[in-house]
Amino acid sequence: MAINLEKGQRISLEKSNGSKLQNICVGINWGAIEKKGLFGIGGSKEAVDLDGSCALFNANKQLEEVVYFGNLKSKNGSVKHSGDDLTGDMGGDDGIDNEVITLDLSKLNESTTYVAFVLNSFRGHDFGKIPFASIRIYEGTPTRVNEVFAKYDIANGPGFAGHVSMVMGVFYKRNGEWKFNAIGEPTKDKKLQETVNTVMQQYL
């Protein structure tokens, strides 16, 4: 049963049978921009480079580590990035995530209290100009979806146009239990470091 959160909702990560969720995936799927030719004849595709990233923080909201296209795995292996997709789907939506970040909550350092997922448009392509761009945060593996927590349609969602950065959501630990906050908010940031700073200041 998919949970499909609205942005701003918070959920516990305990299943109905009492067991705890452990393996989380954040999948991002997007398309290249279609550019029409002169007088609408012909045309071409412009590659779009979106970057999903994961930032880990301790209880004092201090940054511990960032997993992104330049650092594909956290030191203890709890977070892994599938690798940088530089183009998006050039031939239309194939339904397959272009980038996937996996999180194993059981492997996180004891000190890690917040795990934030953010998205940046590397070349500054406006989210509103990308033909399709969807994000899903789910339990499972890169090849198997068990239960979806949150979905965002940033190409068509109100408020994303004019932005090149967003905070997808934050997993946070309270009294030893992991919970999830589906944020889904665009930010005014241009670069990953700026977006991580915004998370630190506003969303932890």
TrEMBL record:
Stored Gene3D superfamilies: sav2460 like domains (2.60.60.30)
CDD domains: TerD_like
Assigned keywords, A-Z: Tellurium resistance
Coiled-coil annotated residue ranges, if any: none
Originating species: Mucilaginibacter aquatilis
Keyword presence, Aminoacyl-tRNA synthetase: no
InterPro entries: Stress/Tellurium_Resist (IPR051324), TerD (IPR003325)
Signal sequence extent: none
GO biological process, one term: response to tellurium ion
Family matches, as PANTHER family: CAMP-BINDING PROTEIN 1-RELATED
Protein name stated in the entry: TerD family protein
Superkingdom to which the source organism belongs: Bacteria
All residue ranges annotated as the TerD domain in the record: 1-196
